[in-house]
Amino acid sequence: MLLQLDKITKSYGTVTANREVDFSLRAGEIHALVGENGAGKTTLMRILYGMETPTSGSIAVQGEEKHFSSPTDAIRSKIGMVHQHFMLFPSFTVAENIVIGREPSKAVGFDRKEAAAQTEALARQYGMPVDPWQKVEDCSLGMQQRVEILKVLHQGAEIIILDEPTAVLTPLEVKELLVAIKALSAKGKSFILISHKLQEIMEVADRITVLRDGRVTGTVNAEDTNVEELSRLMVGRDLVEMIRETPNPGKTVLEVKGLTIRGGQLHPALNDVNLHVRAGEIVGIAGISGNGQSELLQAVSGLLNPDEGDVLLLGESMKGQSVRTIRERGMAHIPEDRYQWGVAKGASVMENGLMGHYRKYQRNGILRGSAIRKLVSGWVQQFGIKTGSIHTKAQNLSGGNLQKLIVARELAQNTPFLIAAEPTRGVDVGAMEIIHGELLKKRAEQGAILLVSSELTEILKLSDRILVMNEGRIVGELSAESATEQQISLLMAGGKAVG
Amino acid sequence: MDNLKNTARALLQPLMAIIVGLIAGAIAIAVVGGSVFETYGEMWKGAFGSFYFFTNTLSRATPIILIGLGVALAFRAGFFNMGSEGQMVLGALSAAVTAIYLPGPGWLRLIAALVAGIVAGGLWSALAGWLDAKFRMNLLITTLLLNYVAVLFAGYIVSYPLKDKSGSAAMAQTVMIDKAAWLPKLFPGMSLHAGFILAAAGAILLALFMRHTVGGYEVRMLGGNPLFAGYGGVKRGQMMIYSMLASGGFAGLAGAGEVLGTQYRYLDNALTAPSYAWSGIMATLLAGSNPLGTALAAVLLAALQTGGMGVERNTSVPLEVSSIIQAVLILFISARFTYSYFKKKKKKAGASNGPTV
Amino acid sequence: MDQLFDVSLFASTLRMVTPILLAALGGALCSRVGLFNVGLEGLILIGAFSAIVGNHLTGNVWLAVLFAIVCVSVFSALMAYMSIHLKANIIVVGISLNFLAAGLTTFSLRAIFNVKGAFYDKDMVGLPKWDIPLLKDIPWLGDVVSGHSPLVYLSIVLVFVLQYYLFKSVSGFRLLAAGENPTAARSLGIKVTRIQYGAILMCGVLCALAGAQLSLGQVTMFTEGMTAGRGFIALVATMLGQSSPLGVLGSSMLFGLMDALSTRLQGFAVPVHFTMMLPYLVTIVAMFFFKDKSYMQEARKANESSR
Question: The whole model's pTM is what?
């Protein structure tokens, strides 16, 4: 056995992220680690990579027990990790990013020519072509991933951990990646592949270990299992199929006309985007993140001024209007990144809940304290938000509870139009079901919802119409009944090869 | 429960910093060969030893409170306004000029002079806010540099065009303000003037404003996370100019108060030499931008300063020992030992933290 | 104008620029590792004062400079410990350090020399003036470039050393990496904290030299608050120079020239108030042409999700 994790337990105070987890890896094997968000996959891998120390349990590499206190120790034991959020230096070149940590040098100088030569040799050896002199910020995400893998190989890794490697890739890039992984494993490298995309796992993995709530619920050979069995192991029960009423769209609430924002590196951030959302309708925008969705949302909500085009809310132009005005005219907004846009971490639950409402809960500029307390307490009960009190600081709430607070706040605006961006990112299944239910309820009440999500399953589950974005454009529209994951994936890739 | 714990924790930090500051002061005293207890005794007497000294301390605290309140407001909104000195000086100059040259009854000139001080300080400060909001010129640095410009400009005005030529001494100062436009003294024979009432009222009003009004809420959220505030409809550029306007207004009022209540003229260096402005900023840092806390901290700093004078009068220890205590106090409160200790215990992994002011 | 822009103006520019340049180089190092060092002003002040103290105690100007370096290092280490280790807001720490420097120097001036305001000793020897062989014989240029204190030449040499270090050496490359993406650098086993400490300490050394030049370079004396905002001007020079040593050299030269011009203009019939205003006004105008990092980026960094 190349690698053996034995009864790993990790707890943070009262929370246990991993409970007696056993995991093993053979040489040349691709072993997938699957589980829902928050199941403890990433924690386990951070322990293996020396970024966390386990509360108890042991790690052995080639039969030898190891204690990693930093990534350096793990790298020395020939373990490499490609993180979900790439650990790259955007303004550095590809070669610089690959050799960093073990740079070739001439006297005290950094020999950049030698670095490029090493990069090219490595790229040839493993059949992953890159341009060593290109800046990483100018590379496509697929190319950046390749740089990450080459970096790990340059470190001499034999065990490579890939954390959600396909999350930001186009379907074509995903295919290429899976092929590359197989080729590398044929050359003797071993992989631990973290994912929650079961189809991909089934395609490439030799063995699969499932985590749920920090425990291993099963380790199976890929040949002996199927997607259904895996999802049962992951979730612990069969998921209830949600009942969707047939849509009954009314008048147009939001209309986006020819919206263009320049200033992308390779292409405009937004390129002539046209769309509309009607009352009683959920329009889903699918796409790999970073293809203009953020810019679209910021332009619609008034945070960013478009270079061209117009946004009409209830038939009125919102061009050049402030966020405040647009909100007052009838917009609510669940932001894509709750920590960046959705809360002030140091403020209380109540103060965070008040945002966007405070102009209604005032008299002559004085806030109406008791009315506000009643409002926010109501949400805490209705949505089951776990918090000490409404005076607790937002930073003490878990991600899921914070998200519920944001959703409650924005739904309570009771506006005809709602933006829901990544409404369930990083929340557990329970919170996800509550949030999905609320969105569908809003739709039944003739609300118009613009849903943006990088999770295809979420898009397919909630949307009445699906628009696909690629490189700042809307590249296709599909109706909910006829759309398949296959079709959307193809459109997401833009129909052309990237990287 | 939560509130109680928070208050206790909030009080613990300044207390620890004060202790560390006093220890540092004790070391300094010992180094110059003074007796620690005797010196601290003299310091206490110099600050609070009699009603006269007590009111003297409050009198010194008056401009420090006002400046501290202005800085606290700006800090709370996330803007490092370091320009109180220039704002105060321009406020003082405008108040003096208004009180001297405006025709009309004394009470009217007094009020007009106070307003002129607020407006001048506010506009000077808003200029820096505007430069940042419009041209992204770092506010911390522009406000600092504008201090020099304002102080030199005021110095020029009283050295050349508006110089008092009646006196024999060649002081750079304006002529005396007519007695009718003076701020009244609170007690006969004491230096404490009505400006203290304004400062105390200002502290209470600002505290209420921050806690209970829409504007205060917007300011706090903007300081907490500007992206969140923007997303919720707070207009950052506008808020920046308004809060800087108010912040500078407080500093301008501080300057006006000193001119109308203590100096009765604009005298070059009279306001910059005691470094009221920097004490005000220190008070704000000490109190973590809490308005009432800022007022208390301002009194504490003023006591250290007047106490230092007592030390100077009655012992061989120089009065600068108080500046050491003040500086160490500030330095150590910025670290928030207890706070970071709690935080580290809570989550070791999370390496993110916003401004702690 | 012949009288204004003469040899001695440019010679004094070179002298005036040195404190700003040295401190700005320190600021650039800090900013390259992601630390906005507002404490330059205080560090220079401590450097200036301790250089005088060192000179007074040892009578040797080189030991005095060394003494200044040691003293300032204590304070920059304190600053590093508070901002990196205790995670205090670096801006607040910087501001506090400036207060501490002002208070401590004023107190020590009383405690050590028993004077108020300024200390001057006519027997004290300042930094020597070096004549550069060959160069000094070139007309005009020789008069401008030759005959300065060694720190003036050292500062110019340091510009090139730092330029090489940052952009050509392995260690400099890692420093840049630590500043550009600390999380990624840490994941590669690069000791980010150690690099940040190193940058602040090095910045302290540079500020000590800046202070020494200020108090021992021209007239050998110390006055309270003699830095007069030079630390902040250096900060602007850092920003204008985009934190690259060569860029910092250029922007510092501009401010040095203004500093020299301001002193020089006092001989003309302009009120001293306006000539003294010049460096600050020029700095503000210069800031107009340099766009600060937008608050959006700052806020994003501060509110990064803790996933």
Answer: 0.85
